[in-house]
Amino acid sequence: MPQLTLAQAFGRAPKKSGTPEKPKQPSIAPTKQPPTQPAPAQSTGKILFGPNGPHPNFDQFAVHPINYNGVVYPSPQHLFQALKFVAHRMDIAETIRNAATAEIAFDIAHANKAATRADWFSINLEKMEEVLFLKFTQYEQLKQELLATGSDELYQDSATDTFWSVGPDLLGCNEFGKALERVRARLGGAPAPFHPAIPCLVLFLLDYYFVSLNSVQKCAKKPRYGESLYCGTTCLKADISRVPPTCPRCRRRPQIGNLGFCGTTCLSIAAQKR
C-alpha cells in the first residue's frame, strides 16, 4: 500500500487557488441498482488523536490522576510540568501539583520558566515517556485502548504546538505521538515506527528561539513551496544559519551559551567518558 502524506491521511490538503469549478451536469433520474455492501473504510495507518477527535483520553490534559513515588498528581500534565522543578524547587512543584486544572498547572510552570532545571531540554523527551508509561500502566482500560491502535502511527492534533504535536500545517515534530508509540512498544505492542529526526530538530530550534512559523519565510516575497515552510533552500539555509549547533552528546538539543552542551546532564556524562 503506498504511503500517504499526513495531509492525504487526515484530509487537510489545501485547495489549489484559481481552480475552476466543474460545471454542474443536468440531473438524471437514477436507475435502480441491486443493493451492494458498503466498502470498508480504508486504513491509512495513521491516527490523528486529540481532545476533539479520536482517543481523547490519550491527551496529557485528560484527567487521569497519576501516582508518582507515592504522591498523586491530578493529571499527567500536572506531573510533567512539576518534574521541571521537583529536584530543586519543591515549592513550585507543589504549587503545580495543587493547581485546580491541568491548564493552570501548565501556566504556572511557564510563568516560572527561569527556574526550570538547567538540563530540562536534554531530558524532557524521556520524562514525557516516563509520565505516559505510568499513565498507561496505572489504567488498564487506557492500556488496552493504546494497544488496540496496532502498528498505526500516532499523531497528536494541535493548532498551536509544533514540537509535541503536528501543528496547524501537519509539519510539527509530534514528539508526544512518538512517545506514545514507544510506550505502546514497551507494553507489548508493535515496535515504534521510524521517524526522521532532522526536520523535527529544525522546528524545535526555531520554536525554542521564538521564531514564529509565519516569519521564517525569509524573503517575504515568494510563496511557500508545497508543504515546506520556505520558498526554497536558500531561505531555509539562511534561517537555519542563525540556529546554534546541536549538543555533541545527545545530538538533539541546541548548545547553551559557552557550555558546549545542551545542559549539565550531557556535560557531566561527556566528562565521565573522557
TrEMBL record:
NADAR domain boundaries: 63-187
What InterPro entries does the entry give? Answer: NADAR (IPR012816), YbiA-like_sf (IPR037238)
Ranges for the region named Disordered are: 1-51
Q: Which segments does the entry list as coiled coil?
A: none
Question: What Pfam family does this protein match (any one)?
Answer: NADAR
Checking CDD domains in the record gives: NADAR
Q: What is this protein called?
A: DUF1768 domain-containing protein
User: Could you tell me which species this protein originates from?
Assistant: Mycena chlorophos
